[in-house]
Amino acid sequence: MEYSKSVKNRLQRVNGQLQGILRMIEEERDCVEVVTQLSAIKSALDRTVGLVVSENLERCVRESVQSGESTDEHVQQAVKLLMKSR
Amino acid sequence: MEYSKSVKNRLQRVNGQLQGILRMIEEERDCVEVVTQLSAIKSALDRTVGLVVSENLERCVRESVQSGESTDEHVQQAVKLLMKSR
Amino acid sequence: MEYSKSVKNRLQRVNGQLQGILRMIEEERDCVEVVTQLSAIKSALDRTVGLVVSENLERCVRESVQSGESTDEHVQQAVKLLMKSR
Amino acid sequence: MEYSKSVKNRLQRVNGQLQGILRMIEEERDCVEVVTQLSAIKSALDRTVGLVVSENLERCVRESVQSGESTDEHVQQAVKLLMKSR
Q: Average pLDDT of B35-49?
């Protein structure tokens, strides 16, 4: 699958945030600050999962419509993938 | 939206589980048991959310295909709804 | 364990919300409304889990302090229980 | 706060996993594989949060016990931090 610029940018930002946390750990920063940053990365990853699944499902549904196939299975698989990634 | 038998059955089971927890609280049962049951209900509600969104999205996509409309917006709304319900 | 009035009240409210959702399902209400209510119950259950674990851990730690025992294991078990209930 | 070797090792592994995902995105790998890896990182971050909060709460409770202060507030803050990081 070809991933959009938006997906790539999000993951680059997550990467930057993670490097920031690694520094905070070395600097022995306060636990509440570190946990807050860890939670922020988790939320960013969550939104990235939503974007990847949404972009992929849109494409799969369009392709099925063009080839006259049923779209139900694609929808079920995408929802299952999102539920598993919770 | 018409909800399937499967959605209705799941919610009835959750209702039964919740009545069970209310009794456990009155009986002052062990906290680990109560928390385990509360988590089980949360997971059951989670799966019910997935089923409701999946059934609804399948129907919306089919209707859009029949009327020749784009399906993208339905997909994006469904994924957004699932992400918000995490 | 004896559960506080606050825990009991929260669960009674969840019970009321669940009965409300069962009616919404019968009335074939819009899927977004139903999913929003299901998510609200999940969040309420989540906060109840936090309250139950917090009240229990406070008591266990106090009892350990009075009997001169280590508190570490109680803390680890409580955190493990919270993580498992995510 | 001084962070344990275990916390540091976990975050280094997460860092490695994230670099792996960035490569998978460039290689346009299958969306299910990428989402599975993103979920794995989320779970690893989750467990790291649990470890950081647990280690910090153990230390805070011990210090309170030694200085004869109440431990309740530390417990409540730690549970609140864990609930917020869900």
A: 96
Mean confidence (pLDDT) of chain B: 94
Pull the structure tokens for residue B78: 């469904």
Gap from B67 CA to chain C (nearest CA, Å): 21
Distance CA B37, CA B86 (A): 19
Q: Which residues of A touch D (CB under 8 A)?
A: 1-3, 7-8, 11-12, 14-15, 18-19, 21-22, 25, 28-32, 34-36, 38-39, 41-42, 45-46, 48-49, 52-53, 56, 81, 84-85
Q: Which chains neighbour C (Cβ–Cβ under 8 Å, 3 or more pairs)?
A: B, D
Q: How far apart are CA C34 and CA C30, in angstroms?
A: 7
Among chain D residues, the shortest Cα distance to A78 is held by D32
pLDDT tens-place string over residues D40-76: 999 999 999 999 999 999 999 999 999 999 999 999 9
ipTM of the modeled complex = 0.88
Contacts of B46 in chain A (CB under 8 A): 83, 86
**Sequence-separated (6 or more) residues with CB below 8 Å from residue A34:** A21, A24, A25, D1, D3, D52
Delimit the domains of chain A by residue range.
5-84
* CATH architecture, range B5-84: Up-down Bundle (1.20)
Q: Is the CB of B79 less than 8 angstroms away from the CB of A54?
A: yes
> How long a stretch of residues is chain B?
86
Query: What does each C-alpha distance from C13 to B34, B39, C6 come to in angstroms?
Result: 17, 17, 11
Kindly determine whether residue D78 and residue C79, on different chains, have CB atoms separated by under 8 Å: yes
Rg of chain B over Cα atoms, rounded to whole angstroms, equals 18
* B27: closest CA of chain A, how far (Å): 33
Letter string b/e over residues A42-64, b meaning 16 or more CB atoms within 10 A of that residue's CB: bebbbebbbbbbbbbbbbbbeeb
- Residue D27 and residue D11: Cα distance in Å, rounded? 24
Structure tokens at A43: 């939320």
CA nearest C75: which of D86, D54, D68?
D54
